[in-house]
Backbone:
């Protein structure tokens, strides 16, 4: 018989993503001061990591693909770092 | 011609406009770029005529603004950025790595159509009335005050950006995946290292320009936007986003030229490039560090002092890999068997002119001096030494070097040398006086100036005449040779690169048998075929 | 799997072609990261300058629709990943349904987005068309909504392209799919997941700030 069921890893990833969504919305209403922004961005990063690792199959990839996937993020870091540097150090 | 090649395979228009052969697409780009080069050149001519006298005699200030904007936009986005990558690169990359085509041939053709769409859109903006913002589109002038075709021009540049991205993507993947057996990274000709570095910038910087132009167009269209100072928006944010692209874009415009010069220097001194690995990694270092220096365009804009200091420091750092290259080219010449053929004349001119352009760049990276020189002709002279003295010179050098491979014909060495020498003198006469004008304080982007600046301006305009004639010359002798020149052998310069192992011009899929590489590049022997004597 | 046409001449084999296509898609994604990166920088600069204005503006966004849309997109991504995983000629029908389901969820996202836009229009929160906001922070709130509309519109455009790709692939997969189609599906899936990732961050930046205070 043909295998048509989704692998457990995909189902697991999907459910965890939905759970994280519920968590981040809930935590947004808990007063944490500056912590709210950190929590929101951290959970967002974890969700993005799950999508990249499991849906986009990066956990099965090696070497070059990972470098290419990381390059965009690295250069995004440069843009945000040097771009914000000016605005954060204005007097 | 006895055997079929990519030119004789088919003669229909359809076979050209629907081709996926990288060589034919390169020819399409050649034709388009010549057209844009002369449009941009026409604007430059009008500028130099106006500046021959201190008064406004040819154009009004408004028209003058539109002229230098048109010159900048056309030359930057529709000539310099695609110049070497999309013509010589498109033609040579698969040949150099022993591949049958680029990784994504249809994407390559799409890239040309996108480029032409962007070019036509920009031309429409120019002929409908022009743009007066300068090629930099600075806000809030471009978004709130300029009374010209900013949205259309921005759309043209936006569209052309996607052509750049697709070309960069194609080169990166091709160089990674389609190298011939045995062609390891350290056996790659240095032209490929520099095109790889260029492609990295194309892919990672161009999207930021795209989104920035989109924000400009949105702001202009809706009358309110993210850079609008009336609601607390910061025009400096625009400058950061713009220069995040446009400074690395300067390296898009020089790295391929450096790559070509490697090939020329080693061929015409019959030697390996000195310090191969240093030159190779210097290309990537320039691409990477080039992303960290953009704020040196904003020293007097009001950005924070911390930012200015960091960007100034980084700008000095990026000079190091460029200097490594210049020293290595010079060392390559040492004890070489040097032949002063036309491509070599261009390569030597490149080294000298690029060095002057690079060193004056260091002046401008100094915070204190930059305050004096900002927006003067010193800056104009500096970047023309890099862009025209460097990139255009290398482009002509590469064009002559690979001309027999592209067309299967040999050009007239006599006329080629004459043109090369004329370009060198015409260029220096045009732009060296501008350093002096700038140091004396003449601001850029004005069509009138005090009479004491006239001497240097007349010299500059006179040089521009020589330069214009010299740039027109190849159109004639290369054009002539393409049809009536002596037939070229497969390897007229006795060079070891893979592109010389297939016939001239190459057949449809480049190689009849898959080449295998067993040794490092640039293994020249001293016997240089006597340079072709054209009747 | 049946191979309807041989791989293009610049490749040495089918795996060679597939790996090359995948790398090309990742390079394209790197480009896209920087495209949205410019917007993110603008957002961070203004959020740093006007923290209270951005918090107040965020409270005027429709968090219920935003959350529902996030769930819709995550589910759609899951269906596409599932389709990639089971792709074969024998599962053509299921694959087709999965892709059509993913595309429908994409359309649902767009529809909800439309509802959201129209509500914001009703509240006079659309800069450049109809923006009225009484209060001291009107200007920074306007900046927020400019970012909001540009970012979500650019994202929605990516969604529409993705929906088109999914529908086209669903149509192709109905009839004898080949390894070439698997490669195409794999590339389209990478793109679709990337659009999902962009939304995850836009969601955190647009809807979540300022919820715990007022």
Residues:
């Amino acid at each position: 018989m043909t295998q048509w069921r989704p692998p457990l890893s995909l189902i697991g990833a999907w459910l965890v993503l939905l759970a994280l969504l519920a968590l981040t919305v809930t935590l947004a209403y808990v007063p944490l001061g500056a912590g709210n922004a950190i929590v929101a961005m951290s959970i967002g990063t974890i969700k993005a990591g799950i999508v990249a690792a499991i849906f986009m199959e990066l956990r099965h990839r090696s070497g070059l693909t990972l470098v290419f996937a990381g390059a965009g993020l690295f250069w995004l870091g440069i843009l945000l770092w040097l771009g914000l540097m000016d605005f954060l150090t204005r007097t | 011609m006895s055997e079929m090649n990519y030119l004789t395979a088919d003669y229909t228009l359809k076979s050209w406009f629907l081709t996926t052969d990288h060589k034919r697409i390169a020819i399409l780009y050649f034709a388009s770029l010549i057209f844009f080069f002369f449009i941009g050149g026409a604007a430059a001519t009008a500028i130099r005529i106006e500046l021959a006298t201190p008064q406004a005699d040819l154009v009004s200030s408004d028209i003058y603004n539109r002229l230098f904007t048109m010159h900048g936009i056309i030359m930057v986005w529709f000539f310099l950025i695609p110049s070497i990558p999309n013509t010589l690169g498109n033609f040579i990359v698969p040949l150099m790595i022993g591949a049958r085509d680029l990784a994504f041939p249809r994407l390559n053709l799409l890239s040309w159509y996108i480029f032409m769409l962007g070019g036509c859109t920009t031309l429409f903006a120019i002929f409908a009335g022009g743009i007066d913002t300068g090629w930099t589109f600075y806000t809030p002038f471009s978004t709130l005050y300029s009374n010209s075709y900013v949205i259309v021009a921005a759309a043209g540049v936006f569209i052309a950006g996607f052509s750049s991205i697709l070309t960069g993507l194609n080169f990166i993947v091709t160089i990674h995946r389609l190298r011939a057996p045995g062609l390891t990274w350290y056996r790659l000709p240095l032209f490929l290292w520099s095109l790889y570095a260029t492609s990295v910038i194309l892919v990672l910087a161009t999207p930021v320009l795209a989104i920035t132009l989109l924000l400009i167009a949105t702001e202009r269209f809706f009358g309110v936007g993210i850079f609008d100072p009336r609601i607390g928006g910061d025009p400096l944010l625009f400058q950061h986003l713009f220069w995040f692209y446009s400074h690395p874009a300067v390296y898009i415009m020089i790295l391929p030229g450096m790559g070509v010069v490697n090939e020329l220097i080693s061929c015409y001194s019959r030697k390996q490039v000195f310090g191969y690995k240093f030159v190779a990694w210097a290309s990537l270092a320039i691409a990477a560090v080039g992303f960290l220096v953009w704020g040196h365009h904003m020293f007097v804009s009001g950005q924070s002092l911390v930012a200015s200091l960091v960007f100034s420091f980084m700008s000095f750092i990026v000079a190091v890999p460029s200097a490594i290259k210049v020293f290595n080219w010079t060392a390559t010449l040492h004890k070489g068997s040097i032949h002063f053929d036309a491509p070599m004349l261009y390569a030597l001119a490149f080294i000298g002119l690029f060095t002057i352009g690079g060193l004056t760049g260091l002046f401008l990276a100094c915070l204190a001096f930059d305050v004096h020189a900002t927006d003067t002709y010193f800056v104009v002279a500096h970047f023309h030494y890099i862009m025209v003295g460097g990139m255009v010179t290398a482009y002509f050098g590469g064009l002559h070097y690979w001309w027999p491979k592209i067309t299967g014909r040999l050009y007239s060495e006599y006329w080629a040398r004459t043109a090369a020498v004329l370009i060198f003198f015409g260029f220096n006469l045009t732009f060296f006086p501008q350093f002096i004008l700038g140091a004396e304080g003449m601001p850029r982007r004005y069509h009138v100036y005090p009479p004491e600046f006239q001497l240097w301006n007349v010299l500059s305009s006179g040089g521009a005449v020589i330069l214009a004639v010299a740039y027109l010359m190849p159109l004639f002798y290369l054009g002539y040779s393409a049809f009536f020149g002596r037939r070229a052998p497969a390897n007229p310069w006795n060079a070891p690169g893979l592109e010389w192992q297939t016939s001239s011009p190459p057949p449809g899929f480049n190689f009849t048998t898959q080449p295998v590489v067993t040794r490092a590049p640039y293994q020249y022997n001293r016997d240089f075929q006597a340079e072709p004597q054209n009747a | 799997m049946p191979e309807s046409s041989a791989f293009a001449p610049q490749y040495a084999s089918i795996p060679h072609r597939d790996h090359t296509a995948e790398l090309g898609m990742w390079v394209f994604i790197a480009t896209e990261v920087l495209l949205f990166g410019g917007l993110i920088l603008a957002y961070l600069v203004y959020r740093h300058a006007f923290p209270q204005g951005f918090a107040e503006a965020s409270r005027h966004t429709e968090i219920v629709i935003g959350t529902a849309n996030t769930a819709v997109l995550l589910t759609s991504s899951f269906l596409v990943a599932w389709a990639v995983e089971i792709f074969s000629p024998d599962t053509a029908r299921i694959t087709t349904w999965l892709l059509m389901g993913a595309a429908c969820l994409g359309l649902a996202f767009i529809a909800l987005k439309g509802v959201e836009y129209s509500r914001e229009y009703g509240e006079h929160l659309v800069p450049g068309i109809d923006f009225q906001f009484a209060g001291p922070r009107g200007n920074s709130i306007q900046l927020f909504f400019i970012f909001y509309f540009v970012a979500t519109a650019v994202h929605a455009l990516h969604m529409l392209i993705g929906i088109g790709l999914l529908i086209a692939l669903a149509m192709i997969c109905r009839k004898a799919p080949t390894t070439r189609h698997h490669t195409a599906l794999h590339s389209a899936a990478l793109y679709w997941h990337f659009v999902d990732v962009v939304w995850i961050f836009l969601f955190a930046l647009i809807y979540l700030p300022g919820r715990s205070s007022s």
Remarks:
- The CA atoms of residues 105 and 411 of chain B lie 30 Å apart.
- DSSP finds 16 helices and two strands in chain B.
- Residues 61-96 of chain B form the longest helix (36 residues).
